[in-house]
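Ticket closed. Logging final result for Alkylphosphonate utilization protein.
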Amino acid sequence: MSTLPPCPQCSSAFTYEDGPLLICPECAHEWEPLDTSAGAPAAGDDARVIKDANGNLLQDGDTVTVIKDLKVKGSSLVVKVGTKVKSIRLVDGDHDIDCKIDGIGAMKLKSEFVKKA
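Final structure:
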């Protein structure tokens, strides 16, 4: 039987696991368990690794170039090949990149359709 830590808010001993979180049934507080040896979250919190079409590592603030014509959903606009996108933000989800494209506005792009500029 594993021993779970008490709730950090109300010190209740009746905590339980729900996926990657620990939950207190008395005060409804939810938190991630800490690895007691390193003080870091225990459940595999690896850094996001997002790569462009050529395999280069992308980071927040990078400038990328679109490598394929991309139709904008719900519009007749098209993001043309060679369009430079500045100051990208990496996000979780199906579309890895959150950005703003001149003439189109805010968009989400997949990293497989861009290359690092």
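The chain has two domains: 1-38, 63-116. No further action required.
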